[in-house]
Amino acid sequence: MPKSEIDKFFATVDEPKRSTLEEMRRRILEVVPDADQTIKYGMPAFVKDGWIFVCIAPFKNHINWSPYSSNVFVQLQDELAGYTVSKGSMQFAVDKPLPKSLVKKLIRVRLAEIELQRAAKIAKKAKK
Fold first, then answer.
1. Neighbouring residues of 72: CB distance < 8 A, sequence distance ≥ 6
2. Tell me, what CATH number does 65's domain have?
3. Measured distance CA(39)–CA(10) in Å, rounded
4. pTM of the complete model beyond 0.85
5. Strands 43-48, 36-40: parallel, antiparallel or unpaired by DSSP?
6. Do residues 47 and 39 touch, judged by C-beta distance below 8 A?
7. Based on the structure, what is the number of domains in the chain?
8. 55 neighbors 29 (Cβ within 8 angstroms)
9. CA dist., res. 39 & res. 51, Å (int)
10. What is the mean pLDDT of the chain?
């Protein structure tokens, strides 16, 4: 799905959530400018080399950040103090985007994890 699918999704979201989501998209793309933008599981998703590294989605009282890995939150638990974090997602205010420095850390940890998973997959195939 092209970027326009996320644009259509965002167009259905009320303010201030829409502006927060748009700012989050800008911040994500600052870190990974060549990320593919799509809709996965009904949420705006950002993909690098076929791997989802984050989804962002509006809910009634918060915005959700889902990196498709609980390990990301474990590695950054000190930086996430003050946020509601579950195994697979983190919640933040509907009117306050995550700080750029935290976005960068969340994405870099997830991308490093993806690289390890990719290397393990390649190694496993090589053994066959």
1. 106, 109, 110, 113
2. 3.90.1150.200
3. 11
4. yes
5. antiparallel
6. no
7. 1
8. no
9. 13
10. 93
Distance CA 122, CA 113 (A): 14
- 41: region left, alpha or beta (phi > 0 left; psi from -120 to 50 alpha): left
Contact between 66 and 35 under an 8 Å Cβ cutoff? The reply is no
How many residues are present in the chain? Answer: 128
Query: What's the average model confidence in pLDDT over 87-109?
Result: 96
Domain that holds residue 113: 3-127
The C-alpha atoms of residue 107 and residue 112 are separated, in whole angstroms, by 8
Helix/strand/coil for 15: coil
Query: How many alpha carbons lie under 13 Å from residue 20 in its C-beta half-sphere?
Result: 23
Q: 36 is written with which tokens? A: 């593919």
**pLDDT tens by residue, 32-67:** 999 999 999 999 999 999 999 999 999 999 999 999
SS3 84: strand
Query: What type of residue is 108?
Result: R
Whether the Cβ atoms of residue 35 and residue 44 lie closer than 8 Å to each other: no
**Residue 128 tokens, joined:** 């066959």
H helix count then E strand count, the chain: 4, 6
Residue owning tokens 């990320």: 35
